[in-house]
Amino acid sequence: MSFKREGDDRSQLNVLKKRRVADLLSNYIPEDEATIMSNGRYTCLVCSYGPVFDTVDMLTVHRNGKRHLEGLKRFYRKKAQLRNEIVKRKHESYIQSEENSQEASSSAPLLAQTRKLTHHALLRTIIFGSNFFLLCFGFSDVELHLEESPPMSEQRKKELEHYLKLKSAGWIQDRSGQWLKDDNVEFDSDEEEPPSLPT
């Protein structure tokens, strides 16, 4: 459920933005996977077609979808490849600078040779580490992490569903964890207490 703003009060706009950021954080959505657009809607940064959503609830439903999970694997695979490419290029530039410094100072050839051998031994452990092996053979950390992560418990699922129901019904949570009625929302009934968590 989305609510339209009345007027152009800047402080009210800032309050709405803060509330939407709090919604994102409360649903455990990483900042690099979703963002808030200038019009107040949410967009998924993982999916290549860039879907746009009105509410966090819709974004949460999208994140559980098959298409998004496939995009998530691609997203983290590209991220890992980029990280490995950066390490590789830094290492290559380090090797070139070492070779240039060795040519300039050949006063201690045994020390330079030992340093070079040590560096190459460390290089092999970096390049041929587990990430490099997994990426070469088509596996990624994301796939392994998704398989190893335990499924969410039934109690946790119920808590998250209850939280989403309360948020979409117009209840807000204060810092102490108590649920309060949102002043900007019109309620159908005169209930003073939010519905309790079903057992």
Structural features, described:
- With 199 residues, this protein is mainly alpha-helical.
- Among the domains are: 8-64; 77-148.
- Helix content is 57%, strand content 7%.
- The protein contains 7 helices and 5 strands.
- The chain has helices at 10-26, 56-63, 66-104, 109-127, 130-136, 141-148, 154-169; strands at residues 34-36, 42-44, 52-53, 171-173, 179-181.
- The strands form 2 sheets. It has a 3-stranded antiparallel β-sheet with strand order 1-2-3. A two-stranded antiparallel ribbon has the order 4-5.
- Helix 3 runs antiparallel to helix 4 (109-127).
- The chain is elongated and about 85 Å long.
- It starts with 9 loop residues before the first helix and ends in an 18-residue tail after the last strand.
- The model has no long low-confidence stretch (mean pLDDT 75).
- InterPro entries: SCNM1, SCNM1_acidic, Znf-SCNM1.
- Its main location: nucleus.
- GO terms for molecular function: zinc ion binding.
Number of DSSP-assigned strands: 5
Computed CA radius of gyration, to the nearest angstrom:
26 Å
Mean pLDDT: 75
Distance between the termini: 26 Å
SSE pattern, N- to C-terminal: HEEEHHHHHHEE
Largest sheet: 3 strands, antiparallel
Shape call: elongated
Descriptive labels:
199 residues, mainly alpha, three-stranded antiparallel β-sheet, 5 strands, 57% helix, elongated
